[in-house]
């Protein structure tokens, strides 16, 4: 049904990027502009900027992955990697990204790599203006960071993994697209971060679903940029209590504290997400994008300014014998649960 | 009914200003003080400070405009310019400023000039401690910035206009007076900013009235200080969504999100505003003023630090051919609507 | 019932402090750590840091005060100064601190000194992980700063007093313990600050109780760090209005604006406080503590950076003849009220 794109080789680049891609991170200082206007000379959108992935060339984008399958109308394009399925409706300009990595859509390095590449492709595709993120796995949106990536690996691996987590957030929180999380399952820790990084969060009514930044429950601490993203959504006091208790909120509670914007029956979730994206896309793109940048710039800039320290801190922490021991024990426990 | 004061010549001055006028912008660093106390040497309230308008001399203030008309009690003083009527009740110390510029109280350079001069006069008048802002135009509080001022004019004109918009906000958001917006009509964009810059917002119950920072709907972006003022009132998340969608909120919705503090039937609006001002005036002036400064200083200072860049950005933007073209088209559309 | 500890001589020290005591103020930069992990070299927790009180030596801690009285089980230890009774349940790790300074638990220099010493002892006691703060005085939690300390004293005394107020807040707002305020009476000004500095606030249902930062009502202004603590709890807009009006909120109102987290019947207050502490103590200490630091660090650091100026401002203010005169008049009025 969907062609498979070979994963781009993971490399770290530092170079000039096209305007559309980096503008959320290095925003146009002119806040009163209209679509297509960038009067700055030189355009700040071409400022050098360190990124994880190389820019995908248009050639790659238009390869096999983009041949419309026979069953789809010509208005639909799809591509799929191993862990994420992306469908773009070119008539509406809205892509849907479906996490499909059993058992629980955990954020492994491979998953994050595919996620970032998919985001980059869509960001660079003029036909795509909006994005809905959802899951094909029953009852789980995403379980968050994959603990396997933090256990028994090299320091180089830990650094690469953490950079990928950062990159995912930078791309999603700073995306120029309208982004809507259609949260159709539980969404702890890193899964909650993905939802928080979108423009709007709709969650399916289900008494079994929970969402929250529950890192403290595991004896770890959410990084400062998880916290900043959370505070921007729910305010300081709610975040202070929720983070310290590592709370996983029920759906009504998440709605009440503003962690999700709307709750609908599960069968209405997709439809509602489409309607919300359409509402946001009714605005002129450039004005909406610059407004978004104005709101999120401080938090994005703060992370970028401390990115390398943040990686170093993570690597130092996870490399410690005591941490390795407790992570191994935790994984043993998980294995026994399954067995 | 009210004498007319000739508009002061618009000039740009940079000089030492009396304490009362600038203290919100250059606040006394001593936060524990009582009325009349300023122990700092030299008093920081006399710090040089760039302003749009010269200080009105006491002579001007005490001229014809202030002769009590025969029909008014000696406790009432009134002055009126072309676009704004000001009445000061010297027994209560509360002035009422009524926008009376048909058809929609749009914020032209002349309107803003009169507004700033009136604010300055009241600020410098020891008999005046509180201010109610309302409209005499049915169904409209203020429609916001006048697009005519942004179209087909010189760059000098654009700069003068934008400086006047800034000045209005600096004076109102930083006013030492108790300021209450009695919002008796719709209040988009710049009109909403005026309400947001007061200490308290009361809106008339009317299903036709709307209020909000809807700049994004017009393809433009609210300046950062509009955004900061909005965030201070409604919080980051509500502001993020409302600004990106350029939402004009109904009265109940505006109340629910905290954009207005109170909703009353239109016939009770003036009475309620008077009661609220009285409640705030029951506090010792100096303690209340310094508390206000403490709350608003960061946002006022941030704008002052970027004032000239903000003007330059506006001028660059509005001078572009493409922007001029779309503004002309927009005005043509408005003319046809009326015709 | 409880042994009395002689008050430590009040002195000002600047020296290296043990990690547990200062970590909230000089937090570990590594946000992803587990209990006992501090991979930084040199450990930032030993950074020199100016404090009011010397560290209590273990000898003092284990003296007579800690001999279990015959009637108490061996799981209870108690110590009492003149103004505060402290009981530590070593089985649960939860201490209860009871203000017992008639008539209204006002925050005199002696009270603050005992408060800080008690906090320090508990902070350094590995058996203590949680703290409940409440009052033994009917209908009053704490009436706030003692005006007697600001009247007719030397400038040295004013400085010492203000440093003690600061120190109390630094220790409580930055405490590593789980702190719950069981507010069983009215709590204006400094009393409200104590509640705000805890992790959670439970207030007894009583139509006569009020709580708020009402400094403006007295013609003075809450210091910036009172304001910052308040904003972190209730948000900018609510704080702006409440502080300017010097509002004392009823219990339901305090709950509604988020100034208290929960309201219970007075007879359930202690039981509820114990349950809440237990909920917070279920989390791994170190993860919870670092999360708390992450949330409160900016506000604590801002005060520390301006601590000496803040003292100087207070001393300058309170030393003025006019202020001394109004404080004397205020105290005369209070005396007549009682007579």
Tags for this entry?
339 residues; alpha/beta; eight-stranded mixed sheet; four-stranded mixed sheet; 12 helices; 42% helix
Q: Into which percent range does the helicity of residues of chain A fall?
A: 40-55%
Average predicted local confidence, pLDDT of chain A: 81
Radius of gyration of chain A, in Å, reads 19 Å
The number of helical segments of chain A is: 12
Which structural class should the secondary elements of chain A be placed in?
A: alpha/beta
Largest interface: A-B, 32 and 31 residues
Query: Quaternary status of these chains?
Result: homotrimer
H and E string of chain A: EEHEHEEEEHEEEHEEHEEHHEHEHHHH
How would you sum up the major sheet of chain A?
8 strands, mixed
Instruction: Give the overall form of chain A.
Output: globular
Task: Give the CA-CA distance, first to last residue of chain A.
Answer: 34 Å
* Sequence of strands across the biggest β-sheet of chain A: 1-4-5-6-8-11-13-16
Number of strands of chain A: 16
- Low-pLDDT residue spans of chain A: 1-73
Beta-strand portion of chain A reads 15-25%
How does this structure look, described?
Three copies of one chain form a homotrimer. In chain A, the strands form four sheets. Chain A has an eight-stranded mixed sheet with strand order 1-4-5-6-8-11-13-16, with helices on both faces. The model of chain A is unreliable at 1-73 (pLDDT under 50). Chain A has helices at 19-22, 58-61, 109-124, 155-173, 189-196, 224-234, 236-245, 251-256, 269-281, 285-305, 307-319, 321-338; strands at 3-4, 13-15, 49-51, 76-80, 84-89, 94-99, 106-107, 130-135, 139-140, 144-145, 178-183, 185-188, 200-205, 210-212, 249-250, 262-265. Chain A is built from twelve helices and 16 strands. With 339 residues, the first copy, chain A, is of the alpha/beta class. Chain A is globular and about 55 Å long. Chains in contact: A-B, A-C, B-C.
């Amino acid at each position: 049904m969907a062609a498979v794109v070979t994963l781009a080789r993971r490399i770290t680049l530092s170079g000039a990027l096209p305007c559309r891609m980096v503008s959320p991170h290095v925003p146009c200082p002119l806040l009163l502009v209209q679509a297509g206007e960038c009067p700055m000379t030189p355009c700040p959108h071409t400022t050098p900027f360190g990124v994880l992935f190389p820019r995908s060339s248009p050639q790659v984008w238009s390869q096999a992955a983009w041949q419309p399958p026979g069953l789809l109308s010509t208005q639909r394009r799809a591509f799929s990697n191993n862990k994420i399925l992306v469908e773009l409706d070119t008539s509406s300009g809205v892509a849907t990204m479906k996490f499909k990595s059993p058992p629980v859509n955990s954020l492994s390095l491979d998953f994050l790599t595919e996620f970032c590449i998919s985001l980059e492709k869509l960001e660079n595709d003029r036909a795509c203006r909006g994005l809905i993120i959802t899951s094909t796995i029953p009852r789980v949106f995403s379980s968050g960071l994959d603990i396997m990536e933090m256990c028994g690996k090299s320091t180089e691996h830990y650094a690469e993994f953490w950079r990928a987590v950062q990159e995912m957030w930078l791309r999603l929180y700073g995306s120029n697209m309208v982004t809507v999380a259609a949260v159709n399952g539980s969404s702890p820790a890193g899964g909650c971060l993905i939802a928080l990084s979108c423009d709007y969060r709709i969650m399916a009514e289900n008494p079994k679903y929970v969402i929250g930044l529950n890192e403290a429950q595991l004896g770890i601490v959410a990084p400062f940029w998880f916290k900043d993203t959370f505070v921007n959504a729910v305010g300081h006091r709610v975040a202070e209590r929720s983070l310290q208790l590592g709370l996983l909120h029920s759906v009504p509670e998440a709605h009440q504290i503003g962690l999700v914007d709307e709750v609908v029956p599960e069968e209405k979730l997709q439809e509602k997400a489409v309607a919300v994206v359409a509402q946001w896309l009714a605005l002129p793109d450039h004005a909406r994008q610059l407004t978004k940048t104005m709101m999120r710039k401080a938090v994005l800039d703060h992370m970028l300014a401390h990115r390398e320290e943040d990686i170093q801190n993570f690597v130092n922490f996870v490399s410690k014998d005591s941490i390795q021991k407790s992570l191994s024990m935790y994984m043993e426990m998980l294995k026994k649960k399954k067995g």
